[in-house]
Amino acid sequence: MRKYAIVTAAVAVLLAGFDAKAEEGMWTFNNFPFDSIEKSYGFRPSGAWLDHLRLSAVRLADGCSAAFVSPHGLVQTNHHCVRGCIQDLSTASQDYDANGFNAKNEKDELQWSMSERCAWRWTRSITQSASSGNWPSSKLTE
Length: 142
Fold this sequence. Notes:
Elements: H1 2-16, H2 34-41, H3 47-56, E1 57-60, E2 65-68, E3 75-76, H4 83-89, H5 96-99, E4 117-119, H6 127-131
Antiparallel strand pairs: 1-2, 1-4, 2-3
């Protein structure tokens, strides 16, 4: 046991000498690292491109993320995020969880209205007002 602890400590000391490298990957839309992205990837997105991404982002009620993939409200997400929906829409003769489902066109898409979906419409900085003790109104206005 003591030998294991010594080896573990030695490995930890050796690893501590290496710099951890991680690419920063979470930004707010109003503080996007344009220069860093352009330098790393040779791509500088426009404000319109970022607005398109922001307006496509959806948060489902259970905390999962999703994205609008049609102008009519169709969203795409992970299977585990909609398992309850799949089970609710299934019938004794059609098990969508086991067999899947593919709508051939928009009119064949299945509708499920039991879930809340939240879309991100705008962002504003509250740092200055919060720092001075003047909390902004909770009223949702731009």
